[in-house]
Structures are given as structure tokens and as C-alpha cells.
Amino acid sequence: MSSITVGTSSGAKAKPWWLDLLTTVDHKKIGIMYIVTSFVFFAIGGIEALLIRLQLSRPGMNVLVGDFYNQILSLHGSTMQFLFIIPIAVGFGNYLLPLMIGARDMALPRMNAFGYWMYLFGGLLIYASPLFGGIIEGGWVAYFPFSNSEYQPSAGMDTWILGLQLIGFSSIFGGVNFIATSINLRAPGMGWRQFPMFGWALLATSFLTVLATPGITAATMLTYLDRVVGISWYNPAIGGDPILYQHLFWFYSHPAVYIMVLPWFGIVSEILPTFSRKPIFGYTALAGATMGIAFVSFLVWAHHMFTAMGSPLLNSIFAFTTMLVAVPTGVKIFNWLATIWRGKLTFNTAMMMTLGFIFLFTIGGITGVALAVVPFDWQMQDSYWVVAHFHNVLIGGSIFIVMAGIFYWFPKMSGRFLNERLGKWLFWLWFVGFNVTYMPQYVLGLLGMPRRIYTYQAGLGWEVWNMISSIGSLMLAAGFLLFVYNIVISLRGPKTAGANPWDGYTLEWATASPPAEHNFDVELPTEFKSERPLYGWKKLGLWPGKDIKKLEPSQIHLPNASLWPFVASLGLTVFLAGLVLKGPLLWAGLAIALYAVVTWAMEPAFESDEIELEVAHHNRSKINNGMLGTYWFLGSEASLFLILFSGYFYLLLTGRMVFPEEMPSIQLALLNTLFLVSSSFTAHFAHHGLAHNRRKTFLGLLGATLGLATVFLAVTGIEWRALLINEDPAQNLYLSAFFTITGLHALHVIVGVIMFLIAFVRGLRGHFTPKLHNGVEVPVAYWHLVDVVWIFVLLIVYVAPRFV
Ligand code: HAS
Ligand code: CU
User: Fold this and answer.
1) Which residues pair with 522 in a beta bridge?
2) Which of 460, 551, 711, 768 could bond 773 through an S-S bridge, CB–CB 3.0 to 4.6 Å?
3) Ligand nearest the Cα atom of residue 77
């Protein structure tokens, strides 16, 4: 008889803890790993902040001077955004989403582990960058040309960019996973109207992550090519435009500020009702507002560029869309206030942090709307007003709720309560400390103090405000130390938290504290009347009730643990380090990554094929988890190409693109189109053959696909060589764009070929059944996208220039 811990970390032979850590696919462990790692980065970023405040506390200090100051400032910004606030939300999401919707794990457990390791290694790469000369001038935004090889010649910039790529992929995989989990794994009976508010927030965040992250991938990839390969979209000497970097960067980084805040909005909407003993006010309006914010935030990025664009029309349009965001956000604030209105409030730390959030976030939001007023922004751009604004929304907003969330769910995660008295100290230190630190910075902004300076002269009226601000930062630091102390002593204390210590209403409170590895021991009732299932069931007498069916161990299936996500991300990291250091490391990394990916693909995901099939069919959409995830990932890929195409059109329309004498050959491109389109057909019918159990057809057509793809790559190679004989793409904007786009596309073809090769080998070995063959369906879907993208490449890169 199978045990409930099928093949997982705490299986028959217990693993040593470190091996468990490296191989776990348990969403709860991965969630906690994310949270702990993020806090470590938070502490590091906090130390950097204190050094910055020390340096600025008085004029003429010598703590951090010149480049060193800039280095620390750039690290501080990168750390807090990319390594703390975004990933810690992924941690909460991982821990909570499956529990809240009654699932056993995330939809793609191994991808989940992969995401965590890429985040960790990406963070390490970013912190390795000072070893290679650092990221000095760019700041967290790494504006061009501060990031090019002239101003920033050291390889530290490359390291930073490559680390960011890993983190970007990690975010995208995380987003894809949250979407697939929300769609597929909601408990039977839980419709969208009963989906927890935190789920909505996570879903909106994930849409942003999946569709916007390619913006920063594109922006920094182009910087990288400029630095390392010499082809450039930004270099004005050949007609490129540095402003394009800002467009691409903010196309991600504005939505990213909502990626940094929406999850916390979701947690606010969970905590307030619990401690007000009232349902959330306006569930539908809140869910709608969340989606509304996500949607509008795609349309506002250029408010970071009011002083750079030089177009009153565009400035007005972006000012309008930016102010529009205040509407759905205002809806949320009013709904929260209505939720606590006349509620029976409990003033514990979680609740106080949440109330503090409402107050501080509103102030931060309004100072943001002020910045959306173009003439005001012209005054305030790059001043301390902006610094105060974004810390107001990020600390007073997001980070207050990080704390609220930890106080709220710590009993669930550990079975223990955090000390409330220390919690209150934390709250007051932070609430007062926040205002003492940042209110003076608004004043400094109005007094004209620019951001990103390491010192200033006496007599400008800035001394006093800077000193107050620095004192405030010590209060914030003291609060955090108390928090760490609180965690330590609480973890040493006894486990006194029951399953539902706060009388909460979402499903995580139906599990033990901490939950068993498989989360739920029983069959959950299927009557979901509202977003508060536990309250509903209590009313109906279903929970606690006599008829709750305990699940047989044989009914519980958990995914297998795996070492390969860890090894694959390690290999990728070694590969990237090899790109920086040059030499054999590169090939070693590539070999490790490939070996890991192949082994991973071969390894069974569950105890047996039957169980995998059963799990695959137990979902809410008709699409299995793997394919659903694939479709969303392809959405992200499509977005990447769309963003690049937009950038290309931007350059085309500026009219500074000079075409080379020898253009790429349309004839060859058409020939290649023929090969690629045919290969989509062979791929499609290979899959079709497998689904009808015609294995020979399947293998034959898969082989044909591989052949056609190889021919495509060969023709591309011939074309490139011919072009490179007479032309230097570094000297020509069109050719820079041409090689970037066709190169990225060719890279996708290569990845497709690798996936097909794996599928082919597995096919030969007799893997796959007519019903269970994601290993084939995934590459086929990917291949269709590669094909469609090619058609656009043909039209845009080969054909369009002939009409300009
Ligand atoms: Fe922001 C810069 C505008 C929200 C983060 N923001 C930044 C930067 C960061 C950041 C990190 O338009 C600096 C990046 C860098 O390093 O250069 N921001 C807004 C607006 C909102 C906003 C309109 N920001 C956020 C959130 C963030 C964040 C959330 C992270 C979590 N922000 C800007 C602009 C800049 C900017 C310019 C560029 C400045 C520059 O020159 O560089 C909104 O989403 C805020 C909406 C929320 C509210 C509060 C609740 C709403 C109520 C309804 C009634 C209120 C109304 C407004 C109708 C508004 C209660 C009345 C208006 C009055 C002025 C009285
Ligand atoms: Cu913005």
C-alpha cells in the first residue's frame, strides 16, 4: 500500500535536512525559503540604507564617498526591489495560495523549486557584481549611457544584468505557476466569486509579472549586447536612442511597482475582515479594482519620463492615465475603511500594521498623484520628493503589510505566536520612525535637494532635515532588530497555536498549524457560498461536523521531490558566470544545465503514470497543469517579442535608421519561412500521431521536424555570414536590430530543437502514452509560437524596411 508521503522529502528513508532543502517541491517549504532569503536580503539592503543615511546626516561626511556611495546606492535599490519586496510576495503566495484554495501543492511543483533557485542564484550574481568592478553609475534603473562600456567598463555591470535575467525568469515562472494554480486547483465548489481576495491580488500581480517582465529583459539584454557584442539600439552615433532604454525599462518597472504592492493589498483584504469580524466590504468591487489597477498600470510607464520625452501631447496623455490609477486604488481604500467601519476591531500587531498601512499608503499615493501633474514633476523630478514618495508607498505600503502578514500567519507556519508586546513596539517604532525619516524628505525635495548625491554643502537649509531623517532611519532599524529578536525567541517557545487561532475564514485555517506535508487530511465540503468558506460551513454545521470524511492515504498524491531544478539553475548560473569570466566555465555550466534539464525531463513527476494521469485530469479547466503553464509562459515570450518589435518600430519611426547597402535577402528568408512553416505541420502531426498511438508516424514526423529546424538554422547561418563579410552591424542601426531580433529568434529555434531532441529520445525509449505526453505537447506548442514569431520577423524586419 502506498504511503501518503509518496516519494517526497520525508519518505520512508528520511533525508538529511540539506538534501531535503535542495530537492523539496513542497510549496510550503519553498514559500518559507523565499521568505527567509528575502529577509536576509532585506537586512543587507537595510544596512546599506543606514550607511547612506549616515553619510547624508550632515554635510561633508566621509562614510561613503563618490563611486563607493553610488555603488551602495545602486545595490540598495536593486536589493530592496528585486531581491526583497518582489520575491517575498512570491514566498507568501507559495505558502498560502494552495492552502487557501484547498490544493495539495502548486500546479507546477518542480518549476516552483526551479524559480526559487534562480532567484537565489540571481541574487548572488547581483552581489557578486562588486567583485567585478560593480554597478556604480547606473543606479537600480541602470540608465543608458551610464551603463555602457564607456562609463561603466567593468564586468560588474554585466554580472548585474545577467543576475537580473535569472531573477526575471524566476518571476515569470512564479507568475505562470500562480495563474495555473488559481485556474486549475481551486477546490471543487470554489468558484471565482469565492476565490480569496489574496488570490485575486496574486492573480493580478501574476498577469503583470508574466506580461511586463519581458520589458526589463529586453531593456537590459540590449544594454548587454551594446556592451559585449557591440551591436546597439541605444547608440546615438548610429541613430539609436538612449531614451528607448527608458521606455523599455519603465514598461516593466512601472507595472513592477504594482507587482510590489498588489499582493499586500490582497493581504490587507484578508486581515481586515478577520480582525473587524465583518465580511470584506464590496468583494466584487475590490476584485475588479485589483484587476483594474493591473490593467491601467500598463498604460502609465512614461510618467517616469516627463522630463525626458519632450512631447507635451505624450506628457498629457501619460499624466491622464497615471491619475486614472488613483480611481481603482481609491475604491480599495474606501472599501477597506468601510470594512472596519463599525466592526469589532482587535488591535493586535497585524491589525495595527494594517491600519498604519492604510494611512501611510494613502499619503504616498497622493504624493504620487502630485508627481503625475507634469509641471510639478518638472520641479520635483530627481529630487528627494520622489524618494519620499516611493518609500512612502513601499515601506508605509508594502513593508508594513509584510510585517502584518508575518504576524498573522506565523502561527500557521510555525505553530507558535509571535510576541505581541514586542510587536507593538515594532509597530510604534516603525510608524513614528517612518514619519520621522520620510516627511523631512518631502521638505528636502521642496527645498531642491537632488537625489543620488553623496554629499551637499552647508547653508542650503538642508542640514536639519537630513539629520532628522537619519535619526528616523535608526528607529526603523531598531524596529527590525526587535522583530528578528521576536522571531528567535518565539521559535524557541512552545507550540501553542491551534489550527485556527484568529478565527479566520479561509481554508489554510482548516489545516493543522503547521500543516501536514499533504495539507488536508479530509475531504473538504463543496458548499462554497462566499469567500469565507469556514464561516459558511460553520453555519451549515459542516465544519466542524460529524460527516467529514477522512482521506485514505491512497487518495493522497504528492509530486516527487527532485534535485534537478537546483542543479539546472546552478548550471545556468555557472554558465552566466562563464559569460563574465570567459573561458571553460561557460561550457561547463552549459553542460551541467543541459544534463540537469534532460534528466529532469526523463524523471517521473509522480509515483506512477496512472497517478500522474489522475492528477492531470483532476483540475478545473480541461487543460492539464503543464500545458496551462506552458500557454502562459508562451504569452510571456510573445510579450518579449512584441516589446522588441515595438522598440524596433520606435527606432524606425524616429527616421534616423540608415539602411546598409546590402540588405538581408528576402529570397532566403522566404525559403526559410517555407522550412519553418512546414516544420510546424510536421510537429503538429507528430503530436497527432502520438495521440492516436501511431508511434512510427510520431517518431518519423518528429525527426522530420528536427531536420527542417536544422535546415532553417543552417540557412540562417549562411545568411549571417554573407552579411558579415561586407557589413559591420556595430556601425549600422538597422543591422543591429536585425541581428538582435533574428538572433533571439534563432536562440528560440535552438531551444525548440533541444526540447524536440529530448522528446525524440524519450519516444525511442518508449516514453509517452496517447494520453500522457506533455513532453511532446509542450515543445509542439512552443514551436508554433516560434513559427508565428518568425512570420512577424519576416514582415517587420525583412519586408517593412522596403516600404519606408
Ligand atoms: Fe509612484 C515614481 C506616480 C504609486 C513606486 N513611484 C516612483 C518611483 C517608485 C514608485 C519606486 O507620476 C521612483 C522610481 C525611480 O527610482 O525613479 N505613483 C504615482 C501614482 C501612483 C503611484 C500616481 N508608486 C506607486 C506605488 C509604488 C510606487 C504603489 C510602489 C509600491 N510615481 C509616480 C510618478 C513618479 C513616481 C509620476 C515619477 C516621479 C519622477 O519624476 O521620477 C498611484 O498609484 C497612487 C494611487 C493611490 C492614491 C491613494 C488612495 C486614493 C484615494 C482616492 C482619492 C485621491 C485622489 C488624488 C483622487 C492616490 C484615497 C488626489 C490628489 C491630490 C494631489 C490631493
Ligand atoms: Cu510609475
Assistant:
1) 550
2) 768
3) 1
